[in-house]
């Protein structure tokens, strides 16, 4: 297949983490230490070999997974959150990745940013409880790790600053803000923005014993046809040492990642830092080091995120590329990308987990591959051939709960026969 257009590829294949629509559309072991039992079944041996990260994302932006809607009473919100944690335990997962800063807001009492509108329906309104604190405590009580998921630069799912709460930092610093493709973003090219983002995130790290800080795939926004991300002034002020605007933008994101990693280690040593990028770094037709794909989006060129370098240089503790395509998909074959990422991680100290598109299994309009409940299980079987792959994360919690065609049930039956401790 020839190179797909960016828009076609984005609409058909981008992760839900990447393109949320404006309307809600400690050591590795398969069994707990010290348990004796009969000689293992071959499937048990396979499960033990692949034991590691078994995660699920819980997205809060536009109430995608939780809370189910805005304005629920605190007790109802807490009940729904606990149900997601209990479901993770029942499916023998070991990690939940909870989105706690979806749009430059907070799911904890932050002194820097307002309470998230996805709790009460009104940005800045106190929900009457501490969701992040509760999530950490209740996850740990169930033997789950809690990774706190932050979106660094997205401010709003609209372009009207007047809709933000009056005290919002984006209203106090309008020069930090860039409207683009129907949304508001902080400008990654401003050092003061980077310092603020780091400060806001590290407040949560200082307050709570989160097991990891987690970024998704949004850095510079995904390309939109006919739109320009207006960072001319920032480039004029800060880009003089770079050969091109693209090189400067990549350095901005590299610097955010390095500074974030250093800040986490300083504030709470032992807390890990992970990123879940879009699954294609570069196509081989663009760069011989790239993957055998024909993706219309490449993180290096379009999001200015050099995810390969972050792994090779161990700037991050783990990476979860979103391989949200089926085995054999011509533009971005899961099998080929799996092999490529395994090779990237080989010999590094960066843990490789694979992001899995549970949300596509049985969804309306998907290809026949995604109507087969065995597709996801095949992914894990294939990944077990690569020692660099230390586990999988599933998008997302609402789909875990619904499991319309039993795809997750098949994964559990085939691969998660016993509990597994989170990787460390």
Automatic annotation (TrEMBL):
Biased composition regions of type Low complexity, renumbered to the chain: 29-38
Family annotation (Gene3D superfamilies): Glycosidases
Stretches the record annotates as Disordered: 28-48
Keywords for the protein's UniProt record, in alphabetical order: Signal
InterPro entries: Divisome_Glycosyl_Hydrolase, GH, GHL10, TAT_signal
Coiled-coil boundaries: none
Superkingdom, natural source: Bacteria
Secretion signal, residue range per the UniProt entry: 1-22
Pfam families linked: GHL10
Domain Glycosyl hydrolase-like: 53-364
Listed name of the protein: Glycosyl hydrolase-like 10 domain-containing protein
Species annotation: Streptomyces canarius
Lineage: Bacteria, Bacillati, Actinomycetota, Actinomycetes, Kitasatosporales
């Amino acid at each position: 297949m020839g190179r797909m257009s960016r828009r076609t590829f984005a609409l058909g294949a981008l992760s839900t983490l990447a393109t949320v629509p404006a309307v809600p559309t400690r050591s590795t072991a398969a069994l707990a230490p010290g348990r004796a039992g009969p000689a293992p079944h071959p499937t048990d041996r396979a499960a033990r070999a692949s034991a590691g990260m078994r995660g699920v994302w819980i997205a809060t932006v536009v109430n995608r997974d939780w809370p189910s809607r805005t304005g629920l009473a605190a007790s109802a919100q807490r009940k729904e959150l606990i149900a997601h944690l209990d479901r993770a335990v029942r499916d023998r997962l070991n990690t939940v990745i909870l989105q706690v800063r979806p749009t430059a807001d907070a799911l904890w009492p932050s002194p820097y940013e307002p309470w998230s509108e996805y709790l009460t329906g009104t940005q800045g309104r106190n929900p009457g409880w501490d969701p992040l604190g509760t999530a950490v405590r209740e996850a740990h009580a169930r033997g789950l790790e809690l990774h706190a998921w932050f979106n660094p630069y997205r401010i709003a799912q609209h372009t009207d600053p007047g809709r933000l709460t009056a005290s919002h930092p984006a209203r106090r610093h309008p020069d930090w803000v860039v409207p683009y493709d129907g949304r508001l973003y902080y400008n990654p090219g401003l050092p003061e923005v980077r310092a603020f983002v780091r400060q806001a995130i590290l407040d949560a790290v200082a307050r709570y014993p989160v097991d990891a800080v987690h970024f998704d795939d949004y850095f510079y926004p995904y390309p939109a046809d006919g739109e320009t991300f207006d960072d001319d002034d920032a480039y004029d002020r800060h880009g003089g040492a770079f050969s091109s605007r693209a090189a400067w933008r990549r350095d901005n994101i590299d610097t955010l990642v390095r500074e974030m990693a250093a800040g986490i280690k300083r504030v709470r040593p032992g807390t890990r830092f992970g990123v879940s990028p879009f699954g294609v770094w570069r196509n081989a037709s663009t760069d011989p080091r790239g993957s055998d794909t024909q993706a219309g989006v490449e993180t290096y060129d379009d999001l200015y995120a050099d995810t390969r370098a972050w792994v090779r240089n161990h700037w991050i503790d783990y990476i979860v590329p979103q391989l949200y395509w089926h085995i054999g998909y011509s533009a971005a074959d899961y099998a080929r990308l799996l092999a490529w990422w395994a090779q990237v991680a080989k010999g590094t100290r960066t843990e490789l987990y694979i992001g899995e598109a549970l949300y596509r299994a049985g969804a309306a309009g998907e290809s026949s591959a995604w109507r087969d409940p065995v597709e996801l299980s095949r992914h894990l079987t294939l990944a077990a051939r690569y020692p660099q792959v230390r586990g999988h994360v599933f998008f997302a919690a609402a789909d875990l709960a619904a499991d319309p065609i039993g795809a997750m049930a098949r994964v559990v039956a085939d691969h998660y026969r016993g509990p597994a401790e989170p990787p460390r």
